[in-house]
Structure formats: structure tokens, C-alpha cells
Amino acid sequence: MDFEFIYENIPLYMEAAKLTISIAAWGILGSIIIGLLCSMIKELRIPVLRNIVQFYIELSRNTPLLIQLFFLYFGLPKVGILLSSEACAITGLTFLGGSYMAEAFRAGIDNVAQSQRESSYSLGMTRQQTFIHIILPQAVATAMPAFIANVIFLIKETSVFSVVALADLMYVAKDLIGISYKTDEALLMLVVAYLVILLPISVIGSWIERRVRYAGFGNRSAVSGD
Is the pTM of the predicted complex or chain greater than 0.85? Predict the structure, then answer.
């Protein structure tokens, strides 16, 4: 193991990690927004849009991110739409993550007792008000484990961004292997870099899950007040 080689190339991995985290952050933020919109449309049963959302979820969840990135980076220019590597990565991650977040929120929504909906309607609240003020806060709390798992999953999916010439962690590792043939050292730094990014998120996510569970959320009986 060439530790001098590792020490010399730490700055490269640090810069790649910054780019990876930035792309992942924007993609996850977009995924949350898309997921919330999709879950709202499905819960409110908006005609036509509900079918479009279901089609999007099935398409997104059943196609690999790699294929989606190929379409964005190599397919769209054929029809005159040019996207930068960063834009392709963010768009692809948002497209993929939005469906997973939508399903996580849907599971949380389904966990809210029907009696709470009926009670809010009896108080004169509209379906939109019921969703925003009654259902959504509880759904977010109960969906927290799936939400954290999706965040970690999406960050790990950034490892395929190198196919669109994005200088992320995987790109740097493959570049160093091709130049120096230091495979073990390059892959070791790659593993450590992802651990440094993901381990704190996993620990914080576990802490949030425990806090939510102690607050009385996380199971149907607690949500329904039984």
C-alpha cells in the first residue's frame, strides 16, 4: 500500500467529494419537492394528473439511473437540448429520487387513520387543508425511516455520474487508476470518501428516527390515537 500516493491525492478526492455532495444535495432537494407534489396529487385524486404521476413513478423506478443519464446527456442533444454534466446529474437524480420519495410519502399517508380525515372534514376543513395541516405532518414523521434510506440510496447512486464526464469521486478514482495503476490505493480512498459522507447521515438519521418514535409517531396506533 503506497501511503505517500494516498496522501498526495487526498486533495483531489476532497474536491470531488465537494462536487458529489453538491450534486446530491440539489438532487435530493428536487426529489423531495417532486415526491411531495406527487403524493399530494395522488392523495387528492386529481383527474388525469394522478394517472400521469403513476406513470412517472413506474417509469422512474423501473429504469436504471445510468440509462436515464445516457438519455439526458446523449439523447436530448439529438433534438437540440443541450445540458451540462452537472445539469444532467441533478436532473437524473431528481427524476429517479422523486419517485422513491413519492412512494415513501405515500406509505406515510396510508398510515394516517381514516378517522382523522373524517374528523377534519366534519370540522369544515377542505381536502387540501386536511392534507397540508393534518395528514402531511404525520406522514412525514412516519415516513422518516424510508426518507433517510432514500437519501443514502441517492447519494450512493452518484457513483454513476462519471459516465457524463462529471469529475465526481468515481471519476477521480478511475482516472487515478488509469494513470498510475494504483488500484488498491485509489479504491481505498474512494471507499473512505463515501464512508465519510454517508456515515454521519446514517447516524443522524437513526437519531431522528428515534426522536420521532419517542414522540409517538411511527406506528398506526400512535397516529390514530388508539
Answer: no
